[in-house]
Amino acid sequence: MAYKITSPCRIYSLIIASLLFYQVSKAQSDFSKAGTWLKDNVNELGGRAVLVILKDGKIVYNQAENEMSRRQKMIGKFIAKRQGKDPDDVLQDFTSVTKERIASCSKWLSAALIMTFIDEGKLSLEDTVGKYLPVMTANGKGNIKIWQCLSHLTGIKAGTIRESTESMKNIQSMDEAIELIAKLPMEGEPGKTFHYSSAGLQVAAAVIEKISGKDFETLFAERIAGPCGMTHTDFGHGKVAMPAGSGWSTAEDYIKFLNMILNEGKINGKQVVSKKSIIEMQKNRVSKDAVIASSPAEAGNWGYGFGEWVMDDAVGDKRSNGVTSPGLFGSFPWVDNQLKYAGFLFTFYIKSKGRNERYMELKKIVDEAITTH
Asked: What is the model's pTM?
């Protein structure tokens, strides 16, 4: 019988290849608990959900689960018909390239856009809105500062996000939108009264439109979407953009934005937002003595920075380890500065009960997967 002798180099190569295969397999299996969680919770998440995880500039996990109940499909068909849409199109399975409304996930995008004007020195966080919008001064609100607009600390008694969306339906211009906000009553002192709404970001958006002479949608495309490679993200292309909630995106597009945030404002070799501004965005601006006039239940006891919630007890000048900007329709984007990764749970449903607990449960599972990677 003849025996084939394998050289030591060949044996060494086989061992290395086996170890590499094991490491890749292990890295993939690290996210098995996240996959199980997604499957177990998909019904509570509206029947369709996508989870994308990014680490070291690469997507390391991308999974979709689609299991709509009969009731969810019936409701979906009813809404589609009422809106004049094809039910089959509306009820298609979600993938990482499905484009859907992201509601308040839009706030993070908008705040980043406004910070580019801060970086260029065209705007200051301490600027008052009356400097650019006389109608605010005429209605006793000209002293509100830009940073307060970015942190829901304007003191304006605005309606809920849904009410604001409804009131904006017939608005024909940004000037008209600001006139509507200017006439709203005040409920507290600017900087010391937190009311989660669309008012502040709408005012800030009007300011950068005045400065630039361009509409908000164009500014976003030029300054954020373009540099980040977000080819399927916009603000609805309506007559007036709603910076706080009219965004549309995909899981793969939004994770590119999160990659930029995680990488201190840099992506594709370009500094989109300065590192200083990224850090400023991630500081809690809601002081312990602030009056909480309105805050969504799913935010729990989180604080708030610029366009994003801070997920730990960071106060004062301390930067948060974890930041997020979840939306009305359940999508949950987050960045973990300590573990150096980003995640995005992409969904579409209204029921908000138990969201905060689910968000924290999912993040804990992914945190563990990342640390054992």
From this structure: 0.90
